Amino acid sequence: MRAMQQQQESAQVRVPHVLTVAGSDSGAGAGIQADLKACAARGVYCSTVITAVTAQNTAGVQGVNILPEEFVREQLKSVLSDMHPDVVKTGMLPSPGIIKVLCQSLKEFQVRALVVDPVMVSTSGDVLAGPSVLDTLREELLPLADIVTPNIREASALLCGARLETVADMHFAAKKIYDLGCRNVLVKGGDLPNCSDAVDVLFDGKELFEFRAARIITDNTHGTGCTLASAIAAELARGSPLFSAVKRAKQYVESALYYSKDILIGEGHQGPFDHLLKLKNNALNQCVPRPFDPNSLLLYAVTDSNMNKKWGRSISDAVQAAIEGGATIVQLREKDANTGDFLEAAKTCIEICHSRGVPLLINDRIDVALACDADGVHIGQSDIPAHVARMLLGPDKIIGVSCKTPAQAEKAWVDGADYIGCGGVYPTNTKQNNITVGLDGLKTVCLSSKLPVVAIGGIGISNAKPVMDLGVPNLKGVAVVSALFDRESVLAETQHLLSVITDSRRQ
Ligand SMILES: Nc1ncnc2c1ncn2[C@@H]1O[C@H](COP(=O)(O)OP(=O)(O)O)[C@@H](O)[C@H]1O
Ligand SMILES: Cc1ncc(COP(=O)(O)O)c(N)n1
């Protein structure tokens, strides 16, 4: 809410904008749908002019319906005359007439750059634009292009069937296609036979450059070409020079392919890929309760590196024992660990927690929480503000805020937190100079808080009962440090504490 208010107060911002002129892919792996996702992933607005509608899936193209030229012209006029995109990217242009209409529109409405992906045949081998388009493409569109991005087969078609089998052949092709009048040529080597790298060759009229990435072993390569061209267009729209636009776009395709390599969508061979780098992770994380379940605050275990050191345990051993004992949520609080070690430990702890459906939060360190994809963070009053944490972490992560007063609890709610930690309830050694609010202070905060509350500060087996007995419905549990981790057996202490708090609950 705060973020929205701030935006309303600030001046309007013009966002980078790519217009894609391409075909629709019903399977959403390639074409218009890939372009939209790639631009969204790169933070660029994407408008769409559709040239053809294809019936397509992971097995191939079952049908193509080409739109009338005049309707393509109408779409182009609607977008170009009003929305003024920075860059136009083209994909499937299925007829010479549609290419001519596009060239006329581009002459009427100037854009900053034109990226031409000369789509002819899909990964599955189906024809999307036949040889009849070649002359118009060569003679009318390529001379307007800032960059043209043929794959091996398309480069060969543009060069009247030249055989292209090696990286040296790609160098030759890039130079020859450049002579057709475009400013830059990128010959893509995703389909180059017998090549362990995915090599693309750029020719800018003076020099040849090779962009290399390790070849990712996967069948989910449907849409890589559309995505690369859209990502180049997006980078150009954001103001990158052409060379860095190509470099970043290729890195993006490589990451998206890496994330896609194991996902399963469809029964055919060419699966689509994961533009937002999230599909597989989201599918696997289903075991973690979403949205945040306030009942998970019941037995909230907070680790402490000094206590672990004292008892000779690793963080992950401590977490494992707490979870086996019945902890319902875990927070890693590593005030003096080095960041690299902290991150590694956090990754191990996440595996342990998620195997038992227990959420894992990171104290204070948003960077570590993001890097290990933790379930959320817990922040104090002098840490990063909760509304900033919410903007950085997005809508799904759990955010907890330490609060001592009703005013702080109200602010945590406004700022988008999910729960508050209230204390210290009792005096404690784990926090120097911490003001104790006592049971009365805790009750006052709970009664005013719109968020669920977990009590913290000096709570253990001997004094957890009066906390749980306060009888306010939004007090969901107790958070504990020493009572679990400054003990010989974390497992036994956690079991014991769990029985105390569940007994109080029952009464
Ligand atoms: N298996 C792969 N591993 C890594 N990069 C790849 C792989 N396959 C394709 N690429 C890259 O994806 C982009 C699109 O290339 P390509 O698949 O040849 O285009 P198209 O989809 O038009 O046939 C290029 O940058 C290429 O190097
Ligand atoms: C509508 C449309 N546009 C482009 C492609 C090429 O993509 P790919 O070469 O990855 O199959 C496609 N299959 N469908």
TrEMBL record:
Location in or out of the cell: Plastid, Chloroplast
GO cellular component, one term: chloroplast
InterPro entries linked: Aldolase_TIM, HMP/HMP-P_kinase_dom, PM/HMP-P_kinase-1, Ribokinase-like, ThiamineP_synth_sf, ThiamineP_synth_TenI, TMP_synthase
Biological-process GO terms, alphabetical: thiamine biosynthetic process
Annotated signal sequence range: none
Molecular functions per Gene Ontology: ATP binding; hydroxymethylpyrimidine kinase activity; metal ion binding; phosphomethylpyrimidine kinase activity; thiamine-phosphate diphosphorylase activity
Cofactor: Mg(2+)
Keywords, sorted A to Z: ATP-binding, Chloroplast, Kinase, Magnesium, Metal-binding, Multifunctional enzyme, Nucleotide-binding, Plastid, Thiamine biosynthesis, Transferase, Transit peptide
Domain Thiamine phosphate synthase/TenI per the UniProt entry, residue ranges: 299-484
Primary subcellular site in the record, as a coarse category: plastid
Residues of the Pyridoxamine kinase/Phosphomethylpyrimidine kinase domain: 25-269
Record's catalysed reaction(s): 2-(2-carboxy-4-methylthiazol-5-yl)ethyl phosphate + 4-amino-2-methyl-5-(diphosphooxymethyl)pyrimidine + 2 H(+) = thiamine phosphate + CO2 + diphosphate; 4-amino-5-hydroxymethyl-2-methylpyrimidine + ATP = 4-amino-2-methyl-5-(phosphooxymethyl)pyrimidine + ADP + H(+); 4-methyl-5-(2-phosphooxyethyl)-thiazole + 4-amino-2-methyl-5-(diphosphooxymethyl)pyrimidine + H(+) = thiamine phosphate + diphosphate; 2-[(2R,5Z)-2-carboxy-4-methylthiazol-5(2H)-ylidene]ethyl phosphate + 4-amino-2-methyl-5-(diphosphooxymethyl)pyrimidine + 2 H(+) = thiamine phosphate + CO2 + diphosphate
Family according to the record: Belongs to the thiamine-phosphate synthase family.
Protein name per Swiss-Prot or TrEMBL: Thiamine phosphate synthase
Record organism: Salvia splendens (Scarlet sage)
High-level lineage: Eukaryota, Viridiplantae, Streptophyta, Embryophyta, Tracheophyta
